[in-house]
Design a protein that fits this description.
It is built from three helices and six strands. By secondary structure, the chain is an alpha+beta fold. The chain has a single domain, classed as 60s Ribosomal Protein L30, Chain: A (2-Layer Sandwich), CATH 3.30.1330. It has a four-stranded mixed sheet with strand order 3-6-4-5, with helices on one face. α3 links the parallel β4 and β5. α2 runs parallel beside α3. The two termini are 14 Å apart.
């Protein structure tokens, strides 16, 4: 593992009432490296900024996580270099679908995470936005 993960956990243990399976941790320690600061990723194409044709929170989250992975790879890294995500959702009822989908991309990664329910995102059709930070070791 590229970074030190302090107190890793899985959401199935901390939120047993929810059907989640996301590897997270309480803190990540990085040393040196290059920091990749990503703008909040939305369910749209990185190539042409077109929003995907779906109002399903899981499908939107897949696109968001694919964008995050692509940007990290374009910077020369991989998902194991992801250290923090901030998840914005427009409806608390979408939390389980969003986190379950995001969790598939975070298996074994254990970034820190903050989740917020917001009134709206920049476009009314967007249900999820994820702000991410990665540190690629030297």
């Amino acid at each position: 593992m590229a970074h030190t993960r302090i107190r890793p956990f899985n959401t199935k243990d901390t939120y047993p009432e929810q059907a989640l399976d996301t590897d997270l941790c309480q803190a990540v320690v990085t040393r040196g490296g290059r920091t990749v600061w990503m703008r909040g990723q939305c369910p749209q194409s990185l190539e042409d900024a077109k929003t995907i044709d779906s109002h399903d929170p899981a499908e939107q989250t897949h696109k968001v996580m694919q964008n995050i992975r692509q940007l990290i790879e374009e910077a020369g890294g991989s998902m194991e270099h992801l250290v923090k995500v901030v998840v914005y959702i427009t409806d608390v009822r979408h939390r389980e679908a969003v986190y379950r989908t995001m969790g598939a991309y975070l298996q074994g990664v254990h970034p820190v995470s903050t989740g917020l329910v917001v009134q709206a995102l920049a476009r009314p059709e967007w249900l999820v936005e994820i702000d991410a930070t990665a540190v690629i070791p030297d």
